[in-house]
Every structure is written in C-alpha cells, then in structure tokens.
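Reviewers asked in the last cycle whether our approach scales beyond single polypeptides. To address this, we selected a multi-component target totalling 796 residues and predicted its structure end to end. The input consisted of the following lines:
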Amino acid sequence: MKNETQEPFLKRLMDNTWLLLALGVVIPLVSYTLWGWVELGTIQPATLP
Amino acid sequence: MSLALPDRDWYKAPAGADKLWIGLALLWCFVMSVMMPFWHFRGKQNSRGEAYAVKPVAFLERTEKFAAANKVGERGGIPIAEPAPGGDAYLIGRMWSWYPILKLRQGETYRLHLSALDLQHGFSLQPLNMNFQVLPGYDHVLTLTPTSKGEFTIVCNEFCGIGHDKMIGKILVE
Amino acid sequence: MSTATSPVPAAPVRPALPAGSRRCDTTGLTVCLTAEKFIKLNAVCAVVFLLLGGIAAILLALTRWQAVHLLPVDWFYRILTFHGLNMLIFWILFFEVAVLYFTCTTPLKAQLFSRKIAWVSFAMMLSGAVMVNAIIIQGKADVLLTSYLPLLAHPAFYLGIILVAVGTLVGVFNFFATLYVAKRDRTYEGSMPLVTFGATAAAIIAVVTLLHGAIVMIPTFTYSMGWTPQPDPMWYRMIWWGLGHQSQQVNVCAMVAIWYLIAHLATGAKPVNETVCRGAFVLYVLFINLASAHHLLVDPGVGSAWKIWNTSYAMYLAVLASMIHGFTVPASVEVAMREKGHVKGLFGWVMSAPWRNPAFAGFVLSLLIFGFIGGITGVTLGTQQINIIAHNTLRITGHFHATVVGGTSLAFMALTYYVIPLIFRRDFIWRGAARLQPWLFGGGILLVSLGMSFAGSLGVPRRHYDIESAGIYGPATHLFLGVMGVGAIIAVVGLLLFAVLCVGTILFGEKNAGRPMADWGTARALVGSRAGSLAEDHWAMKGTVALTAVFLACFAVYYFANWKALADVWPVR
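The resulting structure, written as structure tokens, was:
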C-alpha cells in the first residue's frame, strides 16, 4: 500500500472489476477445486493387509 | 460516505490506529498460520486424510475376516474383535450399525481402517468427542493410540436416513 | 431534530433526472424504477421464505430440545431439509439479488441493464424455489441441505436447485452488465462508492459459488434421472462445499456492505480509510473462497497440505479482512459521533448512539454477534486439527447460527427498516414494536448459538433426531439444548414480528411519497460540533481500539483453549 506513484497497482486493481472477477474465480478454482481434484484423482487402491 | 462517490484522492496508506490494528491483526494471522504446520509436525492429533480406494464389497469381506479371526466375544449379536497390538483394525459403518465392536489396549497404536458400505457416515467417538468422516469407496486410515481406559461410544454424526440416531457402536479399551 | 428530518442531508439538486427513474424524497438520490420493481419483488419473496424457514426452525428446536421432542423422526429430517434450503439459500439469495440491484443503480445513478433479464432471473429463482419446497414437503427429498451422495432425492429437487442457482447467476450477470454500462456511459466519475464495491465483491464470490453449484448439481441431476453413473461421494462433497460454503461468503460480503450503509444512514459515518476498507474486500474476493475446505478437514482422500493451506484462506488473509472491517466499521461510527460532539470518555459515543433506530440496533448486534461469536468460533473450528473435536457436532451449527443468522439475517432485517420506507414508500406501522424486534431476534439467536455450541462441545451431534439412543449424554447437555430451545422461541417470535411488520407496512403503512420517510432516529450533532473536524486525527477512535483489543484477547483465549482441549484427546494421525 504505497502511494508514491500516480496510479498504484492496488488502486488500479480495486477499480478494475473485471480483473478482480478473473482473479476471484481463478484463485479458488486452482487452489481449492483443481488441487483437491488432483488429490482425489491420485488415491491408490487399498491393499487391505 | 459509503453510498456516495469517494473523494478523488481516496487512495491513502493506513495511518494511526488503523495501521496499528492491521499490524496486530496480521501478527495474529501469522500466529494462526504457524500453529497448524507446527502441530502437523510436533502435535499428536492430526487428520492427514490417509485413504485408499476400496470397493464396499471388498471392505466388508476383509472386515468379516478380521472379525472372525480376532473374535474374543459377542455383544448383542455383534462380534467383539481384538486386533493384535500395533496391528490393523477394521470398522464398518452401515445403515444403521457399526461393525464389529473393537477391543483395544491402552498405550498401543493401531491402524484403524474406516469405511462405509452404503451412505456416508460420521465416526464420532464419545465422550472424547473425536470426529472423522466415513465414506463408501474410501478406506480411511487413522493411526490411533488409545490413552484412556473404559467403554467408548461411537455415535454416527453424518445423516444416513431414518435410523441415523440408532447407529451406535462401541470401542472397549483395557 | 424534528421527526421529519431526513437521515441524510438532501443532495444538491441535480440538473435532470434520467428517464425511467425518480428522485428519492428522503435522500435526494436517483432511484431506477426498473431496479425498484425487482428490489420489491425479490425482497417480498425473501421475506416469505424467511417466514417459512422460521416456522421450520421452531419445529426443529422444539424437537432437539429433548424434553419437548415434538416431531416424529421422518418429519424432523424433512423439516430440517426445508429449513436449510429456505434459510441458507432462498431467503439469502433473493435478498442478495435485491441488494445487488440497488447497489448497481442508485449509488452510480445508473439504470438497470435489462428488465427482461431481471424477469428471467426472478422467474427461474422463484419457480426453482417453489419446486424444491414442494418436493421436500411431499417427502421425496429427505436428504438435508447437503444431499450427500449416495443419498438420492427426486430429480425435481436437483432441478429446482439448478434453476435457483442459474437464476441467481442471471441476476448477477445483470448486475455486472449494469456496472459495465454505467462505467462506459460515465454515469459516475472515478471509483465506485464503497457500498457498490462491497456488493461487487459479493457478486464475484457468487459467480465462483454458482459455478461450483453447476459443476456438482448437473451430474447429480443426470444421475438421479438414471442417465449417467453416480458421481464419487468425496468429489461430491468437495464440489458441493464450493457451493455450500462459498454461498455464505457472499453473505459475509453483502452483510459488511450493509454495515457500512447503515452506519452511514444512521450516524452519517464515513469510511475512516477507503483504501483499507476496499483492500479488505479485495482480500475477500481473492481468498475467502478457499475456506470451503472447512468441511473436509477430517475427510479421507485430501492431504494435510491441501487442508492446511485452504482452510487458512491462504494464511488467514480473509480473516485479516474481517478483522479490518471489524475495526473500520465501528471506528467510522465512533469518528462520526465524536465529530458530532459526543466525546465524553472512551464510550460516551456509544451511549448517545441512535439506539432507538431499529436499523442501527440491528446493525450493531449483527456486528457483535458475527464478530465475537461467529468469527472467533469459525476460525477456531476451521483450524485443521481442532476440527477433530468439532466436526459435525452442534458446535458447527452454533457457529453458523451466529454468522448467518445473528450476522447476515439480522443485518438484512436491519436494512429492511430503510428498504420499505424508501423503496416501497410506506412508513412502518407499530414503530415501538419495530424498535424491539432486533433485540428479540438478536438475543434469541445468541442463546441458540451458545446453547448449540456448548452442547456440541459435550459431543452432541448436529442433524440428529434423538441423542437418547446413545445413552451417554448427561444433564449438562440437556440444559444446553434447553437454552437453545428457549433462545429459538425468542428468536422466532422476533422473526414473526419482523414478518408481520413488513407485510403489515407494505399493505397498510402510511404512504410517504412526496415527503421524507418518518425518521427512525439519527445521531444528533451537539452545538459547536463540526463535521469533518476529525478527518486528520488518526487516533480519534479510542473506544474502538479498546473494543478491538478486547476482541483480540477473547479470540486468543478461545483459540488456545481449543488447542489445549485437542491435546487432551487420543493421539491420532
């Protein structure tokens, strides 16, 4: 949160609804959904000792 | 005002009390962020989600074999099985019972395999209040060390139909 | 201050009114008539679903209160399904669409993008909700809100949910399209107002939510029709919570936006620092949705790294956001009150706040219940390992009745005390009863939440018909379930009063078109005070600093007490 430049990145992000929308969709989709999907997809079959 | 357009120069760094509070809050968030990895490595209670894919039929077969081989008694028509100390134990959740009854020894560590045959069930060990999810198709392995003696009750705490509240199991620790 | 004074100083007269809009007689703001119509439609439906859910609530509470144990077992789970959907989905989503339509038009002086799309959205949502409720009451969908596979409901249940979700998504599209057109046509200059920004954050989160809803519900619907094989139960849990948990994060955002709005309407509060407030909403947008993992912390198949990272909302950045709002909202009220001359001691401003205003009282109770009870319990129970001693117990239910009911629903109710006079243009009937309503509802829900939380700490499961079968729960559990039952009675009385006030006012309230709404009570400025006098004093909010310090101390005590409780159970990996 610096205010030395005219239009700092954070301010531009706050004013850019579409970039926020894109990031807001992509971050949880990758971190939660896709990663979780991979976790479930890599489960090994049980050997039942 | 929150309903009107902000001033042209609204973009300002936090100052004074806001800044102090953001700093304190960040510090607290950092403490909480560190606690979970810390407990993962140094704490004794963790849920790692260790699981293997299993067909309900295969799990039933394995559990029945386990119950027959380790049977030390019977209560209400359900066998009491005592696994070898340090060995594997199997527990089935189904509508609406837990099978078999387990007899464990205090201080020994067991690999407890949990799975469901039909719907999802909830393994809720009382009065300790330890809770784990039980799913059909998943062999959920808990590496468990009973540290207290007595009769413990397994309550199902995932809704599984009309008889859900009657789904009660037991773990005996000597 | 006379009763005819508006809560907000009338804005300076603007040149011309855009076509299809009117000027508000109280605030001087521009109201889009199309948006107004759909705000009315959505708000009315919301209150009807709230009423249905409230009737279900009392039946459930009086069943779980073991001394009463009202319903038979099949109806208990049926009504529980009904309660969950009406409260967590229908009441909340309909009200949120109303909030979205308001925040994208009036503050931006814009027109709603499309009347047709608004109709499509409303028709889909309403038909979906009616379909779901009808199928539940017929006993063909006793699967609870989560409908965890392999439990299976009638296909109409899933189809209804899909209709509601897609209908909401269409409404959200209308919101974004309105924002786009407003920006393109320059109906406003610079950055959007904070309330609209908060609503945008809510709308973004809603997109992620409804996307997950579509991913999980469509294959479940086709499975229920027999067209496709059964989706994996664990996959279902994961994606379903992308719908179920995230939809409640939409609430959090909408609720916080409403806090800022009511703080402004009742006390003239301004955000103490726009950047900080907006930054907190950005953190919500980016990270709050990871917390769907809260529901999978003791599940098989997902590992510790995934659990710890996601449950922490990326190292608690979304918690940081809530803690920021928890500071900036009361701080803005305190600064506004101090500027009006209420400067006595640390908390003189609290004493002279407009407590007779039901919107203000509701907002403050919402903030306190959400923060102190809902927030602290939520973060603690959502700690990966601590979840072992909380998952699927009544502690969870106790937590979310503090967030979604004591927090969101109460904030929505509070806002309604302005929505009806300003949008329906009728002054409230029974104003004395209205002043009491937030206290009844908030107080009742506080008891519900505490009763559930303590019973859950003693191991009582949630979603459970009869704990006597286990034969292990003693008198303390029954006491706490009794507290929950008494609280539920008080809360439902508050809810029914709210419904009667709303319906009564819409039908019989005195029309206020052409004059400002009857004032609920706004903070009065003392002689010699000056607005804006504390704008540069960054330490003016001393009372808020004290309050938040208490909050942090409570948080730390509760958090570490739970680690201690966890350390006392059997070692498990």
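Chain A touches chain B at residues 1-3, 8, 10-11, 43-49 (CB under 8 Å). We regard this as preliminary and will revisit it once experimental data from Aim 1 are available.
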